[in-house]
Write the structure tokens for this entry.
Amino acid sequence: MSEGRPNTHCAVPGTKGEIDLVLAGVRDADDPWALASLPLKLPPGRYGLGKGGVALGDDTAAFGWALGSYQFTRYKKARRKPADLQLGASAKVAQALGLAEAVKLVRDLVNTPAEDMGPADLADIVREQAELFGAEFDEWVGEELLAQNFPAIHAVGRAAAREPRLLELNWGNAKHPRLAIVGKGVCFDTGGLDIKGAEGMRLMKKDMGGAAHAIALARLVMQRKLPYRLQLLVPAVENAISGNAYRPGDVVRTRKGLHVEIGNTDAEGRVVLADALAYAAEDEPKVMIDFATLTGAARVALGPELPALFANDEKLAAKLLAAAVKVEDPVWRMPLWRGYRRLFDSDVADINNSGKGGFAGAIVAALFLERFVPEATPWAHFDTFAWNDISRPGRPAGGDAMGLRAALAALE
């Protein structure tokens, strides 16, 4: 390979007109997307890494090539067959391909319409991961949520024909540090009685993107046999409308015992996460990480490509930020500004689920979640978009993992 403008290539023909050599422009040897533009541009066939130019590692090449080959094919045939990259077997290549498969899992889950990705479908995915890695799986469905003291999850999901659920996976040595991973699994969000407009509802199949990230991260922890006692929690619901939908002005009790006034039924994600975070905290994890497509305010502040990172622990925050830079999976830290707690004060309950005045929406949502996390528990919250608004090499428009690789690198 020879240096050139990143993500460009030149195919050099042989004496019989066949491709003899491909020169690919790469930024540097650490660029995870260095070869990602090639699989769907080169003619189908087998290719290998040549000598000369930038010394791209096999693992870096494998990761970018695998994701550059991605096409969502559940409902539509692939537009073309990707070219194959032949690499020698190694532990690093295997890890890179495992990471790419986890990213593809996030993409597939987020891209799947809500009709085929409801709470029960998410349960099947978590159950499959448990069976694959020898983990324990449990779930509580419908009225069982009330019996087991998950009233907030039930309140948000009770209006839907498909019953709300809490999914739990446990794995690993009980002597290892406890790691809790929580993902918002709102499989479709109409906004509830505070209904969204058509434009705002169009992409709400992706409102379970946090759950997709959490499942993928749990998969990677198990696949790499990281030394944690892992707990994965996914509150899986639809925020629907019916005669028994929860209403603006209702007061919902949570597992922690705090009462939440519903200022807006479209701020449902933080309500279901409240019960899941409180449950995770009961086992005193050493680290707690949650993922959620939580606020439009985070997108206003940072756009579609940068997940907002909130953390109550400086060491954990520093580790995540350093990992994000190292693996080129960008995140941006935002503050848990204590002064804004006043924005979710309630006259009738302990807390309101919707901030006053429309200010600092992402911060207010994170502060709401923090109320359900013990002060002594290191906790990080990713407010992610989980969606590419444009196509780039290896990152087609549609569902995507954002912050997943950074979180994994920080945990290793």
User: Anything to note?
Assistant: The mean pLDDT is 96. The first helix runs from residue 58 to 68.
